[in-house]
histidine kinase
Amino acid sequence: RQDTAFDVTLRAVGLEGVLVAFQDVTSVEQAVQMRRDFVANVSHELKTPLTSVLGFIETLKGPARDDAGARDRFLTIMEAEAGRMNRLVSDLLSLSRVEAEERMRPTDRLDLGEKVRSVLGGLQPLAEAAAVTLARDLPEAPVEIRGDTDQLRQVLVNLVENGIKYAGRGATVTVAIEPPAHRARLRAEGVLLSVADTGPGIDPRHLPRLTERFYRVDTHRSREQGGTGLGLAIVKHIVNRHRGRMRIVSEPGQGTRFEILLPV
Ligand code: ADP
C-alpha cells in the first residue's frame, strides 16, 4: 500500500493490492549443481580403479592364465587399486559424518599437545619410509581445549600425511602449537596449531580451491601417493565445526604452512 514506484506501476496496469513474492534461486541452483558435480566426481574416481581391476581379471582368466609372473604382477596392481577404492570410500564416509556433525558443538576436553605427540609417533614409520623428518615445537604445559578427539586427530593425520607425501625426500614437517599466553595481543583468539613443511610449496593460484572436494594441484602425483582429493575438505569441515579458522600460507620454493586457529 506504500507509494513505491513499483506500487504505482502496478496500479497503472490495473493491479492493486497484489502481493508479489520473489525468490532468489541462484543459491539453490548452485547447491544442486554442486551435488551433481560431486556425484559425477565420485563415480569417476570409483570407476577408474574398478575398470582396471575388471580388465586384469579378464586377462588373468584368458591370456595370462598360465603365466605365474604376470599373475603376481597383476594381483599386486589389483590389490593397490582395491586399496584406492577402499580409501576413497573411507574418506567419503568421514566427509559425510563430519558434515552431519558440523552443527553439533564438540564436547571432549583434551590436551592438544598430547594429541600432536601421539599422532607424530604413529606417523614416524611412514615419514622414515619417505625420508622425511618429523619435528615438533610444543609448549611444556598441557594445552587444554574443548573439541572432538577423533576429529582433531584426523586433522593432524591428514595435514602431516600431506606434508610427508608432497614435501619430498629430505624435507622436514613441523607441528607447532602456540598457546594464547604466548601471544598476549591475540589472547582472545585461541590456540594456533600449525603444520609446516619445507617442501616445494604450492602456486598461490591454487590456494583458494585447495580445500574443495577432489581438487588437486597434480592429480597424477596425488593418485600415485594414494591420495583421494578429500583430505583437506575433511579438515575444513572439522575446523568449521570447532568454530576455528584455517589459513594456508605457501609459495613455490618456500614450503607450505597450514595454520589453524582454535578457540579455547
Ligand atoms: P590428496 O588426497 O590429493 O592429498 P588433499 O585434499 O589432502 O587431497 O589435498 C589436495 C591437494 O593439495 C593435493 O592433491 C596436493 O596437490 C595439495 N597439497 C596438500 N598438502 C600439500 C603440501 N603440504 N604441499 C604441497 N601440496 C599439498
